[in-house]
Amino acid sequence: MNLALFDLDNTLLTGDSDFEWAQFLISKGVVDREVQEAKNIQFYEQYKAGTLDIHEFLAFQLAPLTRHRRAELDAWHREYMAHHILPIIGQAAQALVKQHLDTGDLCAIVTATNSFVTGPIARNFGIPHLIGTVPAVDVKTGTFSGGPQGTPAFRDGKIERVEAWLESLGLWWGSFADSFFYSDSHNDLPLMGKVRTPVAVDPDDKLRAHASEMGWKIITLR
Predict the structure, then answer these.
(1) Which domain holds residue 150?
(2) Fewest Cβ atoms closer than 10 Å to its Cβ: which of 38, 43, 62, 117?
(3) Dmax of the chain from CA atoms?
C-alpha cells in the first residue's frame, strides 16, 4: 500500500478555497470588501515570503464563522461550493486523485485551510481523509469559537498532524511501499521532505527552484 497526500489550494484546485470563501462572504455582505481584501493581500504576501503568522491569520480567517449559526453557514457553503469551488476543480486533478484511489492508496488532503471550508471539497474529490486546520467549537452553544483546535496544519504542523493521524490508524511512514505529497508551495517543503516521492504541482518560484535542484518531479494540473 502507498500513501498519497495532497495539498488543496492551488494544487488540486486551480485557485484558493479560503480566498474564494472570503469572496463569497463579501458577495453576501457578511464582511466588508475593503477590509477583507486588504487583509487578504497582506496575508498572501506573507505566505509567499514564508513569514506568515498562522495564528494571526487564523484569527482573521475564522472570525466570520463565529457570528452565524451552523445551519446558516452550511447553507452558505452549499452555495459557495456550486459557484466558487466546482468551477476550479479540473479534470486533471480529479484524474490524479482517482488514479491513487483506484490503486488502493491511503489518500488524504493536508491543508492549512480550515476543515469547515475544506471538508465538503475533500468529499467531492472522493478523498476519505482530511487533515486540515480544525476550527474550535464552543461545546455549550455548538458555534465556532474563533480559534483553532490543536495544531494548525501549516508548515511543520502538517508533519505533526499527519504523523498523529497515521498513529491513530496504527501506521507510520515505514508502513508504505511509497509515499507521495503533491503541493504547489514552498511552505510545504517540511512535509515534502518526509515523503519518498514529493511532487511539485504548478509550483511557486521557490518550490520550482528547489524541486529542480533536488530532481523532484514537476507537473501541472492546469
Answers:
(1) 3-219
(2) 38
(3) 52
C-alpha cell at 27: 458577495
Here the CATH number for the domain that contains residue 29 is: 3.40.50.1000
* Cα–Cα distance, 120 to 130 (Å, whole number): 10
Per the CB < 8 A criterion, the answer to whether 4 and 107 are in contact is yes
- Per this entry, what is the length of the chain? 222
DSSP alpha helix (H) spans, 28-169: 33-49, 54-62, 70-80, 91-102, 115-125, 156-168
Residue 48 pLDDT > 90: no
Does residue 9 carry a catalytic annotation? yes
Residue type, 112: A
CB 200 within 8 A of CB 218: yes
Q: How confident is the model at residue 141 (pLDDT cuts 50, 70, 90)?
A: confident
Q: In this predicted structure, what is the pLDDT of residue 41? A: 86
DSSP state of 33: H
Task: Determine contact, residues 152/54, Cβ cutoff 8 Å.
Answer: yes
Our count of domains for the chain comes to 1
Give the phi and the psi of residue 89 in degrees, each rounded to 5: -100, 110
pLDDT of residue 71: 92
Q: Tell me which residue of 181, 65, 185 sits closest to 117, measured CA to CA.
A: 65
Q: Is 156 a catalytic residue?
A: no
Strands 144-149 and 106-114: what pairing?
Answer: unpaired
Q: Using CA atoms, how far apart are residues 212 and 4, in angstroms rounded to an integer? A: 21
Q: What is the pLDDT of residue 47?
A: 87
